[in-house]
Amino acid sequence: SLKKMTDIIAGGAITVFVSHSMSQVRQMCNKVLWLEKGEMRMLGETNEVVDAYEEMLEQRDLRQANKLRKVREANGN
């Protein structure tokens, strides 16, 4: 549970928290390692890394939406 993890961290233990929930990562972590396909993409302060990750997701979503729009336009929709 998050309460147990918070208690462990508050006790000074070094922990590894793995999640796709950026809100939980922001809440639980003071350093973040972003892995992509098994490779280190970024390591640093939580907000800096999570902001970069979320920006990457937004850009990816925009590219996908543009591709879909182009396909629809090419098909006359």
Structure description:
The protein is of the alpha+beta class and about 80 residues long. It has three helices and two strands, in the order H-H-E-E-H. It has helices at about 1-10, 20-30, 45-75; strands at about 30-35, 40-45. Strands 1-2 form a two-stranded antiparallel sheet. Strand 1 (about 30-35) and strand 2 form a beta hairpin. The longest helix is centred in the last third of the chain and has 29 residues, at about 45-75. About 5% of the residues are buried.
SSE layout and pairings?
Layout: H1 2-10, H2 22-28, E1 31-36, E2 39-45, H3 46-74
Antiparallel strand pairs: 1-2
Strand content: 15-25%
Distance between the termini: 48 Å
Order of helices and strands: HHEEH
Task: Trace the largest sheet across and list its strands.
Answer: 1-2
**What general form does the structure show?**
elongated
Q: What is the number of helical segments per DSSP (H or I, 4+ residues)? A: 3
What's the rounded overall pLDDT mean? 90
Helical fraction equals 55-70%
Summarize the main sheet: 2 strands, antiparallel
The stretches of 5 or more residues where confidence is low (pLDDT under 50) are none
Computed CA radius of gyration, to the nearest angstrom: 18 Å
Strands, count: 2
| Helix/strand class | alpha+beta
